[in-house]
Amino acid sequence: MNNIRTIKGGGNLKGKIKVPGDKSISHRALIIGSIAQGETTIEGFLHSEDPLSTADCLRKLGVNIPKIKKDEPFTILGLGLDGLKEPKEILNCGNSGTTMRLLMGLLAGQDGKNFILTGDGSLNERPMRRVGKPLSLMGGKIFGRECGNKAPISISGNKLKGCVLGTPVASAQVKSAILLAGLKASGNTSVIEPVSSRDHTERMLKAFGADISIRGEFGRNVVIKSGTDLIGQRVLIPGDISSASFWMIAASIVPNSEVLIENIGLNPTRTGILNVMDSMGCNYEVLDKSTIAGEPIGSIKVKTANNLRSFTIEGDVLPKLIDEIPILTVAACFCDGVSEIKDAQELRVKETDRLKVMTRQLRKFGAEISEREDGLIINGQSKFNAAEVDSETDHRVSMSLAIASLLAKGNSKIIRANASNVSYPTFWEDLAKLTN
Fold it and tell me: Keywords of this protein's UniProt record, alphabetized (predicted)?
């Protein structure tokens, strides 16, 4: 495993690329296809560690998923809502919080079957009660370390009852777990969020034939009614806007750059980064818009912009760009004035404490950045000097530091660089392609 990468500062980015398939949609296509009737064919799947962990767990539950090859469509044979088997071994979710949280919802209503979920050292420290608690209110029997908050998690499948659940934080993973459990619960299951989070699960369940409706102001209330079988579909997965964001920001801040990123998902619950790029004064355009399987897609062309303005990120936009905060922190270092990130305490319980890690690593380049409890304050117009930095095992940190290195004077080294494999296995190839 080549774990140290050297990045040369200076130069520019030119060219066009396709980023890998959307991570959120890849997980959901596998899970929903597994409980549908008949065949589901998936194209554009993200061939990276996290979605492959989901595939591995579903195979242990009896789902026929072929060996998934990079850039090749594949077909899975669904087992229907009642067909999952009790596994003979522990389900290992690897580093993937999405896998663990969505499977908790999927398995809670598998009456009479028992399951144990575990993960790697990082995942087994992440909070799980936020999913376990609402599921237990539906009748789920879910246990774990620290009063059910940490994996390993044990699930005793049970008959669930539909109910109305409010979630304290806007989390697509919590909402999705409840909706998946709702497929097996009696009557209606209703989720009400403080702010609407990404809605890939709702869109896909609807495409597979679930009885699901979006209500309330700003679509914050989602209701699913059980009793309807899901029917297998063809799913085309667009490029992941969270992966595209590294190139969108890089092309904006690295002098004399122009990059076209083709076929990326433009789901409105995910495009918060475009709002921030607007307030910064970035130079970009969206081309070739269309809709595939209920998901809007398009291509984005970005050119370098001068005199970028500082920005504040807070409140309702956070769920729409939570994964882009690390790369936006890099962007803030090169804007005029002081940028602020608020209401982002969720980042403290990601793969790492991303607020702490980004502060610690960017300071090595010479960034003026300070932590607050729920965010960051970043002074712009930094002059970066080459440094030796560390991803601290976090994929989004690794890629953000790579982009930061392009703006540093001299050659920088990134330790544990291949953390990027979690969501973007071809990142370093694409970086080489755009910088040559």
Answer: Amino-acid biosynthesis, Aromatic amino acid biosynthesis, Cytoplasm, Transferase
